[in-house]
Amino acid sequence: MNNQLKILGFTAGDGFVYRLNATSKLLFFILVSISCMVTYDTRYLAFVAIFSTLLFRFSKIPFASVKRVAQFAALFAVLNIIFVFIFDPNYGARLYGSQTMIFGPFSAEELFYLFNLVLKYFCTIPLALLFLLTTNPSQFASSLNKIGLPYRSSYSVSLALRYIPDMQEKFITIRNAQEARGMELSKKGNFFGKIKLNVQLLLPLIFSSLEQIDTISTAMELRRFGKKKKRTWYTYQKLRGQDFSVIALAILCVITVIALFFVNQGRFFNPFH
Q1: Domain containing 88: what range?
Q2: What is the dihedral of CA 83, 87, 92, 93, to 10 degrees?
Q3: Which positions, given as ranges, span the membrane (predicted)?
Q4: Helix and strand tally (H, E) in the chain?
Q5: pLDDT tens digits, residue range 123-153?
Q6: 132 and 146, same structural domain?
Q7: CA–CA separation, 78 vs 126, rounded Å?
């Protein structure tokens, strides 16, 4: 399968992140992401952004496997920053209590605030991709069940993660077949025309996928799945020392953000005072 088809698919590997328990990885991702969303301390965000990027780099995941997601995230981030500035270009000045004009309508305070928004993307997106690409779906389901989510919902998430790469593969196969019949879907074609054609290919695939999901659900019901209150997990792993270290690091991040709240007397780090 082409690497681009495995955007959200698990790929077995050998590394520190791969060997971690899915529960510890999930808790680390949730706690660190929440801490980054809550605070606007640039020092903390910069540290987590660098750490997340290096962690993703050292995991040796090919960039080609997440290229599409990275491009979409970059586009979304740019659009978000543009709209934030357009709707309220003086928000940074009000937020930090001063206004230092640099050029045109841009102030140092507004650019600093937008920089913090960019850092938040670098904090969370690498961690999210790292978790999805290094965690076996069955282990992910067991980790969700371990932290309190009902096993029926946990198993649904596992099936979704398993099915997304298959759906991508089918879409590429259909698209290649249509290109062989003369449909222009390559980079040479018109941008909006390609979007329209891809949507025309995607909609039938979605409806056929829903039918397959219904078939799987019926088969699971016939096997009395979900009749018991609890279930065991074949792929469940016990927490080890390295897992407790990762969880402790995530808790330390949360404590750091709480401490910074008192140091900064709020969520924002203000270098202009």
Answers
A1: 1-136+237-273
A2: 150
A3: 26-56, 68-87, 111-133, 244-263
A4: 10, 2
A5: 998 888 888 888 887 777 777 777 777 777 7
A6: no
A7: 17
Burial 48-76 (b: 16+ CB within 10 A, else e): bbebbeeebeebebeeebbeebeeebeee
Q: At 252, give phi and psi (nearest 5°).
A: -65, -35
Please classify residue 44 by burial: count the beta carbons closer than 10 Å to its beta carbon, then call 0-12 exposed, 13-18 middle and 19+ buried: buried
36/99 same-domain check: yes
The pLDDT tens digits of the residues spanning 197-235 come to 767 777 777 777 767 777 777 787 777 776 777 777 776
Nearest residue to 42 via CA among 96, 98, 101, 104: 96
Rg for the chain (alpha carbons), in Å? Answer: 22
**Number of structural domains the chain divides into:** 2
Q: What is the pLDDT of residues 14-28, one digit of tens each?
A: 778 888 888 888 889
Interacting residues of 81 by C-beta distance below 8 A, sequence separation 6+: 114, 117, 118
Q: Please check whether residues 221 and 246 belong to one and the same domain.
A: no
Q: Are residues 69 and 158 in the same domain?
A: no
CB under 8 Å to 146, separation ≥6 — which residues? 23, 236
| Same-domain check for residues 73 and 47 | yes
For residue 63, is pLDDT > 50? yes
pLDDT at 46 over 90: yes
Give the Cα-Cα-Cα angle 259, 265, 269 (nearest 5 degrees): 85
Token readout for 122 is 């670098």
- Say yes or no: 109 and 173 in one domain: no
Which pLDDT band, with edges at 50, 70 and 90, does 9 fall under?
low
Say whether both 166 and 41 belong to one domain: no
Q: What integer best gives the mean pLDDT of the chain?
A: 79
Q: What are phi and psi of 102, to 5 degrees?
A: -105, -60
